[in-house]
Amino acid sequence: MISLRGLTKRYGDKTAVDGLDLDVSPGRVTGFLGPNGAGKSTTMRMILGLDRPTAGSALVNGVPYAALRHPLREVGALLDARAVHPRLTARTHLRAVARSNGIAVSRVEEVLETVGLTGVAGRRAGSFSLGMGQRLGIAGALLGDPGVLMFDEPVNGLDPDGVRWVRELVRSLAAEGRTVFVSSHLMSEMQETADQLVVLGRGRLIADAPIGEVIAGSSVNAVKVRSPQASELGRLLAASEARVEQPSTDELIVTGATIEQVGRVAHEAGALLYELSNRSASLEQAYMELTASSVEYTTALLPGGPAETRKTRV
Amino acid sequence: MRTMTETMTRPAARRSGGGLAGALAAEWTKLWGLRSTWVCLAATLLLGLATSVLGAESIQISGGADEVDAHTLASLAIMLPQFILIALASLAVTGEYATGAIRTTLTAVPRRGTALAAKAVVIGAVSLATGVLTGLLSLAATAWYFGDSLEVTAEGLLYGLLGPGLYLALLSLFVLGLGAVVRSTAGALTGAIGLLVGLPLIAQIVGNETLLRIVDHTPNPQGQLLTSGGDVPHSPQFAALLMAAWAVAGLAAGYAVLRGRDA
Ligand SMILES: Nc1ncnc2c1ncn2[C@@H]1O[C@H](COP(=O)(O)OP(=O)(O)O)[C@@H](O)[C@H]1O
Ligand SMILES: [Mg+2]
């Protein structure tokens, strides 16, 4: 369980995290989503007590991270940047970390096995590829068998196999009842992993909802109609409240009307239908929409609009 | 690759452990896991021995002496090794900032005081031991060259063995703290070498009384006093006190920055 209350971080006059209120619950994967520079890593660093909040608090299992006697047995974290001495072997690095928290050194071999690094455990961490480095970071996070796990952009640098492996790992950790908090700037990654979505834009909380709700709440949800009388039907629908697009001669995309309403209009007009279907927004679209509005909102307030907007592009 | 459920359900953690003892074990593991540590310490001992041998040769060439104290060459023996040991001490902190490993260290041991104390104990102990060993090598070289006229006293052994150990340990602790303040190897070493060599040199060139008085209290002269047992400009006891003050000041400053600034 992670609880953030009014969590704020300013670097000089730049506000990286802005009054974040959030509870991350156990037993599900919470996706922490936002464009680059949204403040995800900063939030995670504050949870770990690495950065000091300008205001507000971050509690893990009800206490500040620094108050935990064996922090790694309660929280395991993979940070976005590599945090391993490159001239230590993977095994020595993990042994040092284990000893610091009174974790049995035999556990090192277990997590090496889990992340698939047993064969290269005697090599220096500096010789690892980005993907192997991520696996080593994940091994470190799992070392203390913690109930809370935080992964900052865990699939960065991983090949498709690795991406799938992380996805399964994250899901199995949540299935075991752990609190799993995973950040990404890519919505596509979250679509198949997260149960709950926390969307951050410009340091502010934009959304905190089950993933289904985020999709359902998107205005991109539409009704698709295929009919030889598409044009006529389009005029009738447009006369009501609905917004209508006609991508091709026999196809309509209707927003602002339910599938039942569209069906009734078609029936009353005696139109022949080849297809009447709900087209739900992809998470990607919902996300673009969410963050786009946050960008519009902030660029209206801040000077140097266009350059800033480019930075927040996904 | 095994599945998570297989490995995660096993009880992994012992009940106790962690805290300062855990932090100490971690620092110890990291220090000896780096080849640079072995290289630095071997170089320290080698240089200590080599300078002692050179010193002995030069005494012999200039006609030798009727009586040679066991610790005669100890002051000479620490001159070069001290620069290697301050690099080792600095790297224990600044090396972690340079590589990002400090975030792992502080995530594992979030209490800044405990994290710094663990580094200080490990570096202090290793420097102390290396200093005593350097003194021992210097003593062996002295005995080898002047076996017949060697004079061994308890006081001589104290200055010859404990002197180098104490001086190098306290100097290392000062530099460790300095490293935690500046967070850069180049910065810490520039500062330390400036204090050890630069300032005394400038003071001598300028000849300013106040500056010379200040230099009398910097680490380098204390090293000479602690290893030779001389009493100009002050006693070895006072020199030890001054070195302890440098170490405490460095560590206190390092602790303040570690607490106050983001990692
Ligand atoms: N140490 C720092 N000093 C100054 N600015 C920082 C620092 N860390 C992060 N920032 C700024 O804070 C904002 C949030 O960064 P970050 O948390 O890394 O975002 P994310 O992880 O979502 O990409 C960015 O604009 C970044 O430039
Ligand atoms: Mg980031």
From TrEMBL, chain A:
Example GO molecular function: ATP hydrolysis activity
Keywords: ATP-binding, Nucleotide-binding, Transport
SUPFAM superfamilies: P-loop containing nucleoside triphosphate hydrolases
Boundaries of every ABC transporter domain copy: 2-227
Record Pfam families: ABC_tran
Protein family: Belongs to the ABC transporter superfamily.
Protein name: ABC-2 type transport system ATP-binding protein
From TrEMBL, chain B:
GO CC term (a single one): plasma membrane
Keyword Membrane: yes
Protein name stated in the entry: ABC-2 family transporter
Keyword field: Membrane, Transmembrane, Transmembrane helix
Residues spanning the membrane: 79-99, 120-146, 158-181, 188-207, 238-258
Gene Ontology molecular function terms on file: ABC-type transporter activity
Keyword flag Ribonucleoprotein: no
